[in-house]
Amino acid sequence: MSKRLTRRNFLTQGAAIGCSVAASPLLTPVSFAAAPTDNRLVVIVLRGGLDGLDLLRPRQEALLPVLRPSLSAGNKGEIPLEGGFGLHPECAPLYPLWQAGQLAFVNAVSTPYRDKRSHFDGQDLLEAGIASIEGDGVRDGWLNRAIGGMKGVDVRTAYAIGAEPMLLSRGDAEITSWSPDVDFILSQQGVSLMQNTLRGDPEMSAAMATAMGLASQSGGGALDSADLEEAMDMMMNPTGKSARRAHVRVAEFAADRLREDARIACFSLGGWDTHFRQSNTLRAPLRRLVDTLLTLHNRMGAAAWQRTTVVAVTEFGRTAAENGTKGTDHGTGGAMVLAGGALRKSGVLGQWPGMDEAALYERRDLMPTDDVRRWMGWALRSSFGLERSVLETEVFPGIDLGDDPRLLA
Amino acid sequence: MSFSSTLAAHRFGYGLSPEIASPKSVNAMLRALRGRDRAATQFALPPVSDVHALTAEFRRLQKVRRKALRAGRDDGPEQAAFDAFKKTSRPEISLWTVQGVLRRVWSEDGLRERLVDFWTDHFAARGKNYDFRTNEAHYAETAIRPYVSGKFADLLEAAVLHPMMLHFLDQNASVGPDSLFARRRPKQSRGLNENLAREILELHTLGVGGAYEQKDVRQLAKLLTGVRAEHDIELRFEPRRAEPGAETVLGRSYGGTERAELEDVQAVLRDLAVHPDTAGHLARKMAVHFVADAPDAEMVASMKAAFVNTDGDLSAMTEAMLRHPAAWQAARRNFKQPMTFLCSALRGLAVPVARMNALQGAGLQRYVGAPLRAMGQPLGKPLGPDGFSEADGHWLSPQGLAARLQWSLSAPVDLARPLPDPRRFVLDVLGEDVPKEVLFAAKAAESRREGVALVLMSPAFQRM
Questions:
Q1: Is A188 within a domain?
Q2: Quick check: is A270 in a domain?
Q3: Chain A interface includes B6 (CB < 8 A)
Q4: CB contact under 8 A, A184 and B402
Q5: What is the average per-residue pLDDT within B190-199?
Q6: What is the CATH number of the domain that holds A321?
Q7: The predicted structure's pLDDT at residue A371
Q8: How far is Cα B422 from Cα A156, in angstroms, rounded to an integer?
Q9: Domain count across chain A
Q10: Residue A190 lies in a domain
Q11: Which residue among A233, A278, B2, B81 is least enclosed by CB atoms within 10 Å?
């Protein structure tokens, strides 16, 4: 397949999660790359548009109860952080991380995407790391370009849980996709016959070679019919408890790889598109984020966690005011979440624009005061020492990294 | 680059069948499409009233059970009745899915089935609770299927004003902020929800590159207030919930009469349906879906022109595609989506109707539901309102191919009885243009099972 994506491809590639639909946790891709460093970076894409104003409630704003009467009502279980911001009660299990200096937030950040507020375009831009998807279009994701810019990267371990490729990790640097849960059986002769039938189709050939290679690695050689039965059962029983806890399995899988030789992981969490009764609908995705962060923390081991930075980003924030159905609509400025033992300290960062009507973007959304790519750029630079020029021209073309926010210790 | 019967089956149908003749000409394809819907009669769904009776009974039992729970009886006869109902109704509901599969596998008018799938995906909607999940098959049956060769305006109205879509995109809860309804309930502060309005413009009509702005989304959302429907009640319009005054969408004013009317909403949908950006968006999407990810520009232009010249006649647009030489380019590049792959395999295996009908809930899950999920296309469950990806690359993942191989190695053995000789099967499903490597693999395979799987996994079968 052509590496160069047309705008059309681009749209359909990124279009996994829709409006008002909680994303299936089963379709959460995760990719890994190994590198000659002890530092680790985990990038989580929060698909659907996280409401930063509900994650971090700006209690210092007199207008908050006016703009968000139902969402700001009651603060039971809310955790006062600093500067007047109160952390959503569902995130209370993260408080020990905050106390340990391992949790931070950046307010009022966004990609350069403006005005049309489409999830699909917004996520494409977030994952591509560029200023606009108009014109030429782009071909790959910023994380993949960053890996391409790192010296001595050995991409040995590369997986993706779920059937769907993730744009973020897509590009020239080799990262493939795999779920550790699916396996199949074909005789040696069948394999060589298939190699022959696929020879004229490089794309199918490559994908199948990867599938076969990975399958035989995890399966340990030839499979007998008992293995096939077992594999079938696993594939045929996707419901039940294990499916509901898929995000934890993704995080466990990620933690195990990162404890070993993987240094970069990315995956996504869905369900953030809270148009309706947000006081209920935001709880499940927040709980999944909390579970994910705590699973990484608990399972990775102290030594690996001390060198880890987790960055969770979303395609846009949501409207400053709640809508007519006690939810929020697509907005602009939003919040990013940082966690990990590598952080220098806890804090609520970013330049807060205020919520007066004149301070809002289009008198509707929180005004973005900074580019989310600048923060991701510094996370990359601090973790892996990427050159400023590489970050400003190749990874996030056209961005000005500005002053070092000194994220890491 | 001219008509080929085999290519017509691969590209515009569900592939070749050893028991059903492929289309003889473009004229024959169009005649079938414009004629009677035989498959819908042969593999019929029960009337919508049956579905509503089922969901009404479900709700009644649920209510009784909840009452019992509140009274502290959590394991009484109420719970048992509720569980028994769920258990006995499940096979009936799964039979509707089987009927859908059978239409694709046994229809003589494959183009119609492919168009129904295409437009159902274009207007992707799914149930978020039991009632609406139970209605999914009937959404496609009543809001999409009758309109696939009619005017797009009729399809648009039927789909976006169907209770399923109003439920899926939160329209039922959207209320005009200055409506009577909202003003009477100041404490509830009820108001707008932009979800449906945005997707109508971005996905269903103009396309994300189309000539609309945020203010059009907002205005359309206001215009849509008052439109609502419950699962078992026809669409209705409640002026009390409608935002008073006129709204301006794409520079044109709608409504504004003293009493808001459903006609105002229908008027804006009619205008959006024939907008040139809608024509361009739909023509391209259809060409991508049926022919190639990078379709011939002239073919797309001719499809768009047919749409524009006929005020959005879908059969004219389909005809323009079928009559264009680029539709018959011999190289097959489009990679089958999982549902197309699975149904074309069943069609090639000529899996008997009785065998499919015998698949009750668990069997259907084992051979159809779970494998489709593993291939990345859960049955009738698009993740979002934009439906499933049209990009070949999306489906060409190692994981997706592994799941297809796994199905090819395991399902045909159980479903096709007897499993065909691969040497015959390869000709059944690939026809005259069978590549020599595939012919060789079918002969050299060490078992029937592997031979059939190798044919199904060949590029000549996977691409259309």
A1: no
A2: yes
A3: no
A4: yes
A5: 93
A6: 3.40.720
A7: 96
A8: 38
A9: 1
A10: no
A11: B2
